[in-house]
Design a protein that fits this description.
Blueprint lengths: L14 E5 H7 L15 E4 L2 H7 L11 H17 L19 E5 L18 E3 L5 E6 L13 H18 L2 H4 L2
Antiparallel strand pairs: 1-3, 2-3, 4-5
Helix pairs in contact: 2-3
């Protein structure tokens, strides 16, 4: 039920809500082709209520309720005032969302980082919890733990390191040409 009280999982996309001050501060461009208004991935409004009413997306199962968005932003702005997000534990929220126009951008998170995985040493050998090498087992890239380190470079470099060390350890009959 994903906390919605409904028997169906999920309620639609997650929206990043921000204001004109954020656009200026971050030097964002909020016009096409930098945002996709036509496909329903970006919306604007002069008021929070107008913004909520404008959010219409084919994946949005239920309309955004203006009163809910206004309350959510009032709560968030109070966390900025107090310096502490008591609802989600966000450390030191800094900027209120108060300056018109207001914006909503599709922000559905996608998992692409490994926050856990096999523990490896500098030779890309898999090690146990005590740091002992598991003979003949190598790992690299996304399957190795890494705390947000990902990408082609990581896979390529660790693959080369693992391959080189695995070949050096391979029994002689496997290394003959």
């Amino acid at each position: 039920m994903a906390g919605t009280g409904e028997a169906v999982n999920g309620g639609g996309p997650i929206w990043a809500i921000f204001d004109a001050d954020a656009v200026k501060r971050e030097k964002w461009t909020v016009e096409p082709p930098h945002v996709d208004i036509a496909a329903g991935f970006f919306f604007a409004g002069e008021t929070i209520a107008e913004l909520a009413a404008n959010i219409k997306n084919k994946y949005q199962r239920n309309p955004m309720q203006p009163a809910v968005l206004e309350k959510t932003l009032a709560n968030y702005n109070s966390y900025v005032d107090s310096g502490k997000d008591t609802e989600f534990g966000k450390p030191s929220p800094k900027y209120k969302v108060v300056t018109s126009p207001f914006y909503a951008a599709w922000a559905t998170p996608v998992l692409h980082d490994t926050r856990a995985g096999l523990r490896i040493n500098a030779k890309c050998q898999v090690v146990d919890f005590s740091g002992n090498v598991l003979p003949g087992l190598f790992c690299g890239g996304e399957s190795a733990g890494g705390f947000s380190m990902h990408g082609l470079a990581r896979r390529t470099v660790q693959g080369r390191i693992a391959g080189k060390n695995a070949a050096a350890e391979a029994p002689r009959e496997y290394t003959k040409s």
